[in-house]
Amino acid sequence: MRLIRLLAVPFLFGVLALPLTAQSPSPKGDAAILAVLNKSVVDWNNGDLDAFAASYKNSPDILFIGRTVRRGYAQMLEAYRTGYSTREKMGTLSFLGLEVQPLDEHFATVTGHFHLERTATVGNANGYFLLVMEKTPAGWKIVRDDTTSTDIAASK
User: Please, is 40 exposed, middle or buried when counting C-beta atoms within 10 Å of its C-beta (0-12, 13-18, 19+)?
Assistant: First the structure.
């Protein structure tokens, strides 16, 4: 009986530690995710919406939540093309305060703020986002994008 108690204590500590290790940040995973997002900023700032959209999983199952809910890669890309049809409307994108939270080996969330620096005619845009990213054979891809504008004009 004493042997069972002696073995039970290390076993319990091991079981209790599993959730902590499963969600611990992976510097390599975090770096790969941040690289995808940094590339998307460069692509946006180069005016290349197709390259920017490559950070999303090309699937009918992705979800983009902004002022409306859009499902699927094609609908998401069309919304970007419609809303940002000129370089003036696109402006210069920057992300601030990016935080990666691994969920498991294949999924992670990213939170952060975005800023679009644009001409006075169009006006700047700001907000925050929550992304769900999936590790696919093609690398980390956005599968859900919940973006909220903090601009007064956007809420009208």
Answer: buried
